[in-house]
Amino acid sequence: MLNDPLFIIVALACAVVGVILILGISNFGKEGIDNAKRSNKFMRWRIIAQFIAVVLILLFVYIRRQMGGE
């Protein structure tokens, strides 16, 4: 499975979601309106990245099933 390029892309997409989540959460603890705006921006980007990751996961599962689960 590690030789499958789509699996690697899915894993990277999940890692990106995790990094964005950590960045957003790290800003929640800081005071100030700018930090609050930055946290909201990170959380919006997380939702977009998470949507892309879920679509890629579904695509990966669909393709693997079509190939017979190799």
Describe this structure in words.
InterPro entries: Hypoxia_induced_domain (IPR007667). This is HIG1 domain-containing protein. Residues 1-70 form the HIG1 domain. The chain crosses the membrane at residues 6-25, 45-63. Keywords: Membrane, Transmembrane, Transmembrane helix. This protein has 70 residues and is mostly helical. It has one domain (5-66). It is built from two helices and no strands. The protein has helices at residues 5-28, 33-66. Helix 1 packs antiparallel against helix 2 (33-66). The chain is elongated, with a radius of gyration of 16 Å.
* Secondary structure tally: strands: 0
Structural Rg:
16 Å
Query: Number of DSSP helices?
Result: 2
Strand content: under 5%
Shape: elongated
- The total number of structural domains is 1
Helix content: over 70%
Organism: Roseovarius atlanticus
Domain HIG1: 1-70
Protein name: HIG1 domain-containing protein
InterPro entries: Hypoxia_induced_domain
Summarize the structure.
This protein is mostly helical. The chain has helices at 5-28, 33-66. The longest helix is centred in the C-terminal third of the chain and has 34 residues, at 33-66.
How are the SSEs ordered, and which strands pair?
Blueprint: H1 5-28, H2 33-66
Give a quick set of tags describing it.
single chain; 70 residues; mainly alpha; 2 helices; 83% helix; elongated
